[in-house]
Amino acid sequence: MTKIISFQGFKGAYSDMACHAVYPDHETLPCVGFRDAFMAVENGEADLAMIPVDNTLAGRVADVHHLMPQSHLNIIGEHFQPIRHALMGVKGAKIKDIKHVHSHVHAIPQCRKVISELGIESHIHVDTAGAAKEVAERKNKAHAAIASELAAKIYGLEILRGDVQDADHNTTRFLILSPKPEKPYLKEESCITSLLFTVRNIPAALYKCLSGFATNGLSMSKLESYVDPNFDAAQFYVDVDGHCDSEAFRNALEELGFFARNVRILGCYKAHDFRKPSC
Q1: Which is the catalytic residue, given 28, 34, 128, 172?
Q2: What whole-number distance in Å separates Cα of residue 132 and Cα of residue 12?
Q3: What Rg, from alpha-carbon coordinates, does the chain have?
Q4: Which is the CATH superfamily of the domain at 4-82+171-178?
Q5: Per CATH, domain 86-162 is 3.40.50.720
Q6: Contact 185, 191 (CB under 8 A)
Q7: Please, which pLDDT band fits residue 160 given cuts at 50, 70 and 90?
Q8: Active-site residue, selected from the candidate residues 10, 174, 197, 259
Q9: Cβ atoms of 243 and 184 closer than 8 Å
């Protein structure tokens, strides 16, 4: 039986491309919103979900940032997808014809230079591929989309200019979510453990929570805070370089327990090769 992996967006979105890159044997399931992609796995419609969390130009994906603590899914992997945006229009359109450009809320700021150069008005869509689909349906030479070359192929648009992102390092980090945890072997060379915790109401609580990782030789690659209704940063998300079953990590968790509550490991997974330093 073919397995299914959900993603937010239309066919041809970068999330769709990431699904095919990591799981070429899976069928992809487009979902309107991120919550829908999460729910598709939780209710059994999909086996996995491919969810973007950070981009090197646009920063973190805010919707996902707030959905992760609410979800009961487990992180089983990560993927770094290079983003190569293209400016595309209907057949016969020229650069000089374009007055409007359509794309995702994160893609627009990734392409500020070309939008400013052409002096065109930008319009936000829920997805890059969805923007391409709408432009194709408009059949108006004044409207273009910023999306992937795959989206141009799927929706019959012509590439007017390739590589329109502001920087060549434009990359999105995705997390792969599953109903069940899938930890790598303890001796795996490079692992990431993601966890959530809430700080206790004591002085220097966050410092004390994090000190155990430092004293046990564990580095952090990510630290994010969540505000409560009183705008206090009470909950934190952390990515730690290390396996959750290692002696060092167990010692760090023991120390964390003195200063934090509601500690929850979201997943332990192999670090992507993208993290390896280039020689």
Answers
A1: 172
A2: 9
A3: 21
A4: Periplasmic binding protein-like II (3.40.190.10)
A5: no
A6: no
A7: very high
A8: 174
A9: yes
